[in-house]
Design brief:
By secondary structure, this protein is of the alpha+beta class. It folds into 2 domains: 61-223, 2-Layer Sandwich (Beta Polymerase, domain 2), CATH 3.30.460; 225-369, Orthogonal Bundle (Poly(a)-polymerase, middle domain). 40% of the residues lie in helices and 9% in strands. The protein has helices at residues 53-66, 70-92, 108-112, 134-154, 203-222, 226-241, 250-262, 272-284, 312-329, 334-338, 392-405, and strands spanning 101-107, 121-128, 164-167, 170-174, 180-187, 355-357, 360-362. The strands form 2 sheets. Strands 1-2-5-4-3 form a 5-stranded mixed β-sheet, with helices on both faces. A two-stranded antiparallel sheet has the order 6-7. β4 and β5 (180-187) form a beta hairpin. The chain is globular and about 70 Å long. The relative contact order is 0.13.
């Protein structure tokens, strides 16, 4: 007689946590999606590849159009430096103990070098030694504004008002030239467990600000290649213009750009033309669909799939749109996809309209998922079971999304 061992069952019926579906879900995380770049050795090319030099030139041209001007960059940098210095001085100031500033970190697109044209906004995350209240935020904001005005007066420069607007998770300060710095308030991680929702700032906002610090640190260490920054700008621009990509968060775009440009068998980064095409291929193959392993969030513990923050509608829309754009791109429609205007040729909504390229008709794919009224989604926020931590990044990505778009 064989005794049954106690403990967890192993074998084919039970895999690691990220391959098991949380309780109440019918979608099983069971596979990695097809990646043409990693599979290239097994699928040799049947013919020579066309010259992609024009495509590369248009990608670089569009990136140049989306890059902030030198004046915009200087404007944001000057205001950022002034506010950063004020906050740093509060750490050692004799009367600074009441504010309890522990550390100041630059985060967001300013820190990553992926700012967009016309978006003269930078972000700072301020870590306090204590759990902040709304009164603490107002007090700190007023002190920063007062110090900025005093410094302007001492330098005999034209006085600026530095308009300040406080909000639940921090405050914004605007410069005289229209540049804006958003200050996100958070606290030391060990304090979060003691947060009182009736007195302190919402713990979800505090966690979101801490997440932006982790994202900025990871990006600085892993996503320093130029192709990644260029690809991020292009994807952000597509997200603004193409409704099907609206669900992509800034953090998902960062991870996707890194995956498309850097994860290769040769460990050599891809050129921007190959990285852009691969990004669409990954989305079209279902990288962010239910059942896909997707991209494991490098800044979260517990093997969290980064795309778990997306609703099923958003996942379906992203994949369907990418499939349509990829078919158009394969027939040379890169100007239309990039939003480049050509004199005498009207703009075409390639993601929603039936188009023809060299006699080949491309029809946008239909939705595969239709949400039923009154029926909760099986995947997304509010997951249970051993993968419950996957629901946490939803709040963090929401905070970073507001930083990038507001």
């Amino acid at each position: 007689m064989h005794r049954r061992r106690s403990g967890r069952r192993s074998g084919p019926g039970r895999g690691p946590p990220y391959l098991r579906n949380p309780m109440g879900q019918k979608f099983m995380v069971s596979h990695s999606t097809f990646d043409p770049v990693l599979a290239e050795p097994f699928f040799p090319k049947a013919r020579e590849q066309p010259d992609e030099a024009p495509f590369t030139q248009e990608l670089l041209k569009r990136n140049q159009e989306l890059t902030p001007t030198l004046q915009e960059q200087t404007s944001v940098q000057n205001l950022m430096t002034k506010i950063n210095n004020v906050l740093d001085n509060l750490i050692v100031a004799p009367d600074g103990a009441e504010f309890g500033v522990e550390e100041v970190r630059a985060v967001g697109s300013y820190k990553k070098g992926t700012m967009m044209l016309g978006h003269t906004v930078a972000d700072l995350a301020v870590i306090l030694k204590k759990l902040p209240t709304e009164a603490d935020i107002l007090s700190l904001a007023a002190r920063v504004q007062k110090t900025l005005k005093e410094e302007e007066k001492a330098d005999n420069t034209p006085a600026a008002d530095y308009p300040m607007q406080a909000n639940e998770g921090g405050f914004n300060i605007t410069g005289s030239d229209g540049s804006l710095v958003r200050v996100l308030i958070t606290t030391l991680p060990k304090n979060l467990r003691d947060a009182d929702p009736t007195k302190h700032v919402d713990v979800k906002l505090l966690e979101g600000a801490l997440a932006t610090i982790r994202h900025a640190r990871w990006f600085e260490e892993n996503a320093f290649h130029t192709s990644i920054r260029v690809l991020i700008r292009l994807l952000k621009d597509m997200r603004k213009r193409i409704a099907g990509f609206s669900g992509l968060t800034p953090w998902l775009i960062d991870l996707l750009a890194h995956r498309a440009a850097m994860v290769t068998s040769s460990r050599q980064p891809l050129n921007i033309n190959a990285a852009f095409r691969r990004a669409l291929q990954l989305l079209a193959s279902g990288l962010f669909l239910p059942g896909s392993l997707g991209i494991i969030d490098p800044c979260e513990g517990g093997q969290v799939r980064a795309h778990s923050v997306l609703s099923l509608e958003e996942q379906d829309s992203i994949a369907t749109t990418a499939q349509t754009l990829l078919r158009c791109l394969n027939h040379g429609a890169y100007n239309e996809i990039l939003g480049l205007t050509i004199e005498g040729i009207p703009l075409v909504a390639v993601d929603t309209e039936v188009t023809s390229w060299g006699g080949v008709i491309v029809t946008p794919g239909p939705k595969a998922y239709e949400k039923q009224e009154g029926k909760p989604e099986e995947e997304g926020e509010g997951e249970e079971g051993e993968d419950a931590e996957e629901s946490e990044p939803a709040v963090q990505d929401e905070a970073e999304d507001k930083m990038e778009t507001s």
